[in-house]
Structures are given as C-alpha cells and as structure tokens.
Amino acid sequence: MTETKALNRAIDEITEIASGFGLDFYPMRYEICPADIIYTFGAYGMPTRFSHWSFGKQFHKMKMHYDLGLSQIYELVINSNPCYAFLLDTNSLIQNKLIIAHVLAHCDFFKNNVRFSNTRRDMVESMTATAERIASYEMIHGKDEVERFLDAILSIQEHIDPSIVRPKLTPYETEDEKEDVKPVVKSPYDDLWSLDDRTEKKQQKSKKRQKFPPRPEKDLLLFIEEYSRELENWQRDILTMMREEMQYFWPQLETKIMNEGWASYWHQRILREMDLTSDETVEFASLNAGVVQPSKQNINPYYLGLKIYEDIEERYNNPTEQMRELGVEPNSGREKIFEVREIESDISFIRNYLTKDLVQREDMYLFEKQGRDYKITDKEYENVRDQLVSMRVNGGFPYITVENGDYLRNGELYLLHGYEGTELDLNYLEHVLPYIYQLWGRTVYIETYVEDKKILYSFDGNKVNRRFI
User: Largest alpha-carbon pair distance within the chain?
Assistant: First the structure.
C-alpha cells in the first residue's frame, strides 16, 4: 500500500472513531507541506495573512529551532469551516495518525466552545481580502508609511475586548450638548418665565462634563478607531481589519490549556481503538509521552488540561455522597467533560475543576528565583490554583483600560493598568507609548505601579516622562 493510500485509510478510520465518540467537527481538509511552509504558516498565524517584518522575524526563529533540532511543529490546524490541517511532510504514518486524531479534537473544540461562538469561520478568505487591501494601500501611500502604521497597531493588538456580549461605544457628548434642548413655546411670552431658570441651569451645566468614556473601556483598539482625530480613512480601515483579526485569534489565547488538553485526551483514546502494529504502538507511546510530559519549570498546557479532564471524568463516574446529593449521576464523566469543553474558558476551567487532590497528586508548587537559584516557595492548593488563574487572566496580557479620552480637557488619553501584583515590562512600556501617541495624536498617559508605588508614565511626542502620584 502506498503512503498516500495508507494515510487516506487512516484518516477515514480515525474520523469514524472520533465521530463514534461523539466529537462534532467541521469538514476537514488535510495538506502535506514541507517545513518551510509549515513554519511560514506558524509565524504568520494563517496561510493568507498580510506581510510584515515581525512575521519574518518569528519565522526565522522557529525555522532555526527546527534546523538545530530544538523543536518541531508536526502540524498546524486552522479554525475555519471547512477546517484546514497542514501536516509536515517528514512525519511518519503513526505521527500523522496521532496528529489527525489531535486536530479532529481541536476542530470539535473550535466548533463547540462558547468562546469561539462569535469567530468568523471564513477567516481564511477574509484575511486574503485584508492582505490585498493592505497591499493596495502600500501602492498608494508607500510601503514604509503603511508598515510604520502597522508597527503601531501590532504593538497593542492584544488590547481588545473579547467579551461575547458587550455594549456599543456611546458618542461623546458634553452635558451642555445633552441638555441644550429648546423648550416648547405655547405663546410669544412663555420664554420670559424661564429666563431665571435657564441662567441658573447654564451656570450649573458649565461645571458639569460627561465622563469620556462613561465607563472604563477595555477595547483600546476600538476606542482609538472610533475617536482618534489623527487617523486618515485608510488608517482607520486597516485598524478595523487588524482588530477583527485579533478577535479571531483571541479565543485561542483564552482556552490554550482547555483546547490542548481536549486534543490530547482524545488522541490518546482514539488511537487506543486502532489496530496498531507493535512498532507503531511503541512509537506512539514515545510520541505521546513527549507531548504530555510534565515540566518542572513551567506549565505544559497539554499535560495540565489532560489531567484536569481525566480527573473530572473519574470524579463524575464515581461521585462522592456529597456529589450524589447535588444530583451527580454515576458514570456521567464523559457527559460532564463534553459540557465543560462547551461552556468554560481556561480561567473558569482551572478555578472550578483543579482540585486539591489533583494539585497534591501532581506535586504542583510555586517557585521563584532567590539569588542564583530557583526555590519552591509554596505548595498550598489555593495559592497554586490562584496563581494559575492569574496567569490566564486576559490571555496572560496586562489588563489596560481607557479611563479618560479627554484628559485635562485637551483630548489627551489616560490609560489605567489593572495592577494585581504583576508589574508591566517597563522597557516595553516606554517603547509602546510612542506608538499609542502615533495612533491617538495627543499626549498619552498610563497609570501603573512600580515597586508598590503608583506611578504615571506619559509621552508627549518628544520623550517619555514619569512621576509618582
């Protein structure tokens, strides 16, 4: 049997087994690609994305690691309908069997997890159109000008609001604009009676000014897109497209542990149903161990997600008396993990299902660098769980909100860092502030904490300043 026929037969068999387990996925499209193509897609995040120097930098880093044998990408899966999976052309048949089972579970997760419910399923085509429009702007305005603008957007691209339901931005109005309504005149002299009241109201209104925005706004890209007086139409168009692309990628950041754990759980169970040869069984065991092995230095999302799903299934298959009183039926573990995969994100997944027994069984701990050595500092269950949750808040990125878009009544932008014990990278901050200034067009401020002291950074177009407040 040729390699292609063997692979097609494996795809059919694995798809049938996965469907039998209840996995629900979009139609799959598989492509066999050389390493250069796989790593290009990995660097760009999508086969059809626009060109930018930062993607080339990422490609060089990833490809160098591959050439030196430090790491290897076996596959790349695209969340779309149909779902695309790109397989490395040097994979063995058993590697591809594991990968096919793995990507089918990813596709099931993409299709059914609530965080992906607003994801555009035609993003491959949409990004093609985006790339073409950006290329056309490069022809009109010059490649350097467009690239300089893209640099600014990409520096803050993670600062969107991924909420499934969110209120629309309200137009900016002063209290004067809101209350300046002409009274209904019933006779030519009616307005004389209200002269004193109107004078008093005018004095009161001059002291009032609507907060802008009326509530802290997390979606920095949307706020700049809507209210910046600096952007030209072509720039606003690019900003709109970049924000849409980030909304596509964001659910993957919110569900990294869940998604990889789900795929690992199912590739194990699917391959156990297959009639593997002795050699394939040994190779599969080795490959699987490499994917889900725990790490002493950091969190392996494949391993942690897998262990939490397995723990959920075990506990719901064999519920305690207390769980039975809450209505948990024996042997409901498989049903429960399907429910979890549908409604949770990494934060709720860890907070709700990382149990004390699991933390102790996996010997999980907190550590920090003390002098030249790393030392274990805490093994308490609540502290370990809370630290893992804090690492997943906002996809692991700083939580920044717009507090005032008309600071000092001069159209300046005041941002607030939601500080919860983790400081900003100050070197990165000082390089990003000029980019935000470029997008906003006026002085930009950001309030944060350094060494537990409140500090205000600003950039006025010339230099970065800071002062304690």
Answer: 101
Question: What six digits make up the tokens of 456?
Answer: 């205000």
Strands 75-78, 83-88: pairing is: antiparallel
Looking at 6-10, 59-63, 80-84, 89-93, which range is the least confident one?
Answer: 59-63
| Rounded Cα–Cα distance for residues 336 and 345 (Å) | 15
| Pairwise CA distance, residues 281 & 80, whole Å | 32
Listed residue (209, 226, 171, 280) closest to 440, CA to CA: 226
Residue type, 382: E
Going from the C-alpha of 125 to that of each of 47, 121, 136, 245, 438, the distances in angstroms are 10, 9, 17, 12, 30
Indicate the pTM of the whole model.
Answer: 0.86
Q: Which amino acid is at 187?
A: S
DSSP state, residue 31: E
Residues with Cβ < 8 Å from 386, sequence gap 6 or more?
none
Q: Is the CB of residue 439 less than 8 Å from the CB of residue 152? A: yes
Cα–chain-centroid distance for residue 133? 25
First to last CA, the chain: 73
Residue written as token pair 């692979």? 7
Give SS3 for 177: helix
Please, what is the Cα angle at 429 between 249 and 212, to 5 degrees? 75
Separation CA 175–CA 205 (nearest Å): 6
In sign, the C-alpha dihedral spanning 424, 428, 434, 440 is: negative
Cα gap 339→355, rounded to integer Å: 18
Helices (H) and strands (E) in the chain, counts: 20, 10
Residues 6+ apart with CB under 8 A from 376: 365, 366, 367
Give tens-digit pLDDT for 363-413: 888 887 777 777 878 889 898 999 899 989 898 899 999 999 999 999 999
Cα 282 from Cα 390, distance rounded (Å): 38
Q: Note whether 312 and 333 are within 8 A (CB).
A: yes
